[in-house]
Design brief:
The chain is of the alpha/beta class. About 40% of the residues lie in helices and about 15% in strands. The strands form 2 sheets. Strands 3-2-1-6-7-8 form a 6-stranded parallel beta sheet, sandwiched between helices. Strands 4-5 form a two-stranded antiparallel ribbon. Helix 1 runs antiparallel to helix 2 and helix 5 packs antiparallel against helix 13. Its cofactor is Mg(2+); Zn(2+).
């Protein structure tokens, strides 16, 4: 379709069209013909408007943060990251550059909660097969339970402090190679190659979003469980990527909640069509009953559980 500078002068436009078409035929270029179908004879190709559209097409970089007990970490926990990543990428607006697993500290005081050192080690072993998800021990290193809003703030500040807006400037582990920096003891910090590449491209600040299940979303309505200010802080300043099961109705729940409804633009709902009912509670029950959990958790995690007799596992004498 041609866009004429003077629509009233159809005959003149037709002549211009033929001139361009003849040139394309002489050039024997299919690509040139494609360009003719969208050419605007009244504008040059390098206009400020086109540059603006190019900038608007830049994807927002996202770090997915999952908080929880991970007691133990299951294959479903890992699947949540993959499902969320696929869904965000399909929007064409986001690029997921990293996933973070943040186990709760021993200060949570939950029944049957194994020590953080064991839970973190199981997470670390389960993530050996992932190229983009990592363990972070900042939360688990705290003496007391840490509010989710504060955890998000910590990771956002960490992302912002790694580089400034104009140049690549690692702030930790500078003695290690620039491509991959890792602190292997408590307070694990990792800078992925994706982060290095994209930050250098100047795509703007990274967004840290809370990855969760539908149960966490619904827990916002439980009286006294969450501070109203924290709920607003989380959904307004960070955002949620919520994995829900087929048949649930998170949209209705969001509609009925004033805060969630107000910031629903920052809540990304992902339906898990391939249903999976694996839960850490069911895993612990099976282990306690000396039942197999193979293919429900990573083999490396099972080996660690058996070696350390976690969750009531009884190891037969060899």
């Amino acid at each position: 379709m041609l866009i004429y500078e003077d629509n009233s002068n159809f005959q003149q436009g037709t002549c211009i069209f033929h001139v361009f078409m003849e040139a394309a035929i002489l050039d024997n270029s299919r690509e040139r013909c494609k360009q003719l179908s969208i050419i605007d004879v009244g504008k040059s190709h390098d206009t400020p408007d086109e540059n603006y559209e190019l900038k608007m097409a830049t994807k927002t970089r996202v770090v997915l943060l999952a908080c929880g007990s991970f007691n133990p970490i299951t294959n479903m926990h890992l699947r949540m990251f993959e499902i969320a990543k696929d869904s965000l990428h399909k929007t064409g607006r986001f690029e997921v550059i990293e996933g973070i697993v943040s186990p709760v500290s021993d200060g949570y005081k939950k029944k049957d909660l194994e020590p953080a050192k064991h839970r973190c080690e199981m997470v670390r072993r389960s993530l050996k097969t992932s190229s983009w998800i990592r363990l972070d021990t900042w939360e688990s290193d705290q003496d007391t339970w840490t509010e989710t809003a504060r955890i998000l703030a910590h990771h956002k500040a960490q992302q912002d402090s790694i580089y400034n807006a104009n140049e690549l400037r690692p702030t930790r582990n500078s003695e290690l190679p620039a491509k991959k920096k890792r602190k292997t003891n408590a307070g694990t910090t990792h800078v992925s190659c994706n982060m290095l590449h994209n930050q250098a491209d100047g795509q703007g600040p990274v967004q840290v979003k809370l990855l969760c299940g539908g149960d966490l979303l619904e827990s916002f309505a439980v009286p006294g469980l969450w501070k109203p200010a924290d709920i607003e802080d989380i959904v307004r300043n960070y955002g949620l990527v919520c994995i829900t099961r087929e048949g649930s109705n998170p949209s209705r729940f969001i509609y009925e909640n004033d805060v969630l409804s107000k910031f629903q633009y920052n809540i990304h709902i992902v339906t898990e069509w391939i249903t999976n009912d694996i839960s850490a509670t069911k895993i612990r029950r099976a282990l306690r009953r000396q039942e197999s959990v193979k293919y429900l958790v990573q083999d490396a995690v099972i080996d660690y559980i058996m070696k350390n007799s976690l969750y009531g596992v009884e190891v037969a004498d060899k």
